[in-house]
Amino acid sequence: MIQKIKQSMLDFVKKYEARLEVFFFVGGFIFDALLMTEIDDQFSLWQQAIYLFVIAALVHFEILYRSLKWRPSRFMVRAWEYRNLLLHFLLGSLLNIYSLFYIKSSSVMSSLIFLLLMVALVVGNELPLVKKSKVSFKVGLAAICLFSFVSILYALLLGYVGWTPFFLAVATTAGLFYVQLFLLKRRIPDERTLHKALLFPGLSVLAVFTLFYFLGWIPPVPLSVKEQGIYHFVEKKNGQYLLSTEKVWWKFWHSGDQDFKARPDDKIYFYAQIYSPGRFSDQIFIKWSRKDALKGWQSTDRIPLQITGGRKEGFRGHAVKANYQPGEWRVQVETSMGHEISRLYFEVTEDLATEPRVFTVLAQ
User: Fold this and answer.
1) Is the pTM of this model over 0.70?
2) How far from the centroid of its chain's Cα atoms is residue 66's Cα?
């Protein structure tokens, strides 16, 4: 009876393998989207590490299996039939986590190509052509997950983002791939096969990440802007930030006074809540730019702001612009390396009215 049930399940999996892989891949996305915690949550970090270890083990034995250097024991034969489902679930789960982290830490315009690439990899993983391909594509996805994990880990340990944690992440990822290559070479002497299956996809991913980092396309995880806006006045009082705005209620999509009506002696205040993990201390920059009709966006100021982590709602800070003229403006929040975390567009027009203004004061 039990044997018949097992055989029925196996036949069912073989018949609907493609649909089940999609189901498990999407299931991994949903599973971690629902249970997603803060980026520095220790349980989540350990969970990611365990997932990566299991993925590395599956890739290791898959290469041995395809090279006829290993066969599962009779106790593992049935479980081995489900290896692709497990691999899809784990990769889907990790790609979901890191995609969400990258999205939260990015300005869409500056990281659009990188984010589109992430989406393309997620979608491409489910294409029939990719499913029939060799193990190297899965190794590439695993390399993305491994690099994302160690780059976040180094940023958390060092307490800042920049070249040092990035290059440490590159070196660590490459080192772990060489360790796995060394272990496989003990069973498979054909280095060309191993290079094609393991080393080439892993190093290719690192090369792409390095290029994108130089271009400023990789979001500066774990930093993220949780809230930002343009205001007529910002004041810190009794531990709260008081934001004065003229925004009308129906412009719900605006962040404060994005239609900034300026009178003489008005100053423009930019306020932001910037999330960073506990024990995190770094310097960011608030960059002001005005759009010139002939030259395009022209930078006018780049104001440093020291942030410290640990506050769930995000570190609160503001920058002031006193010298300006009417026109289209842009504020960008950047790391010290110039990697953009967020941007906000607003327009300044001259207000010729003289009657008293009524501001709405928001407490943050």
Assistant:
1) yes
2) 33
Residues with Cβ < 8 Å from 269, sequence gap 6 or more? 230, 231, 232, 233, 234, 243, 318, 319, 320, 321
The helix/strand/coil state of 272 is strand
Q: What is the pLDDT of residues 16-61, one digit of tens each?
A: 666 666 666 666 556 666 666 778 888 889 999 999 999 999 988 8
- Write the CB contacts of 31 (distance below 8 Å, at least 6 apart in sequence): 89, 93
Q: State pLDDT tens for residues 107-118.
A: 766 666 776 776
Helix, strand, coil fractions of the chain, as percent rounded to 5:
45, 25, 30
More reliable by pLDDT, 83 or 36: 83
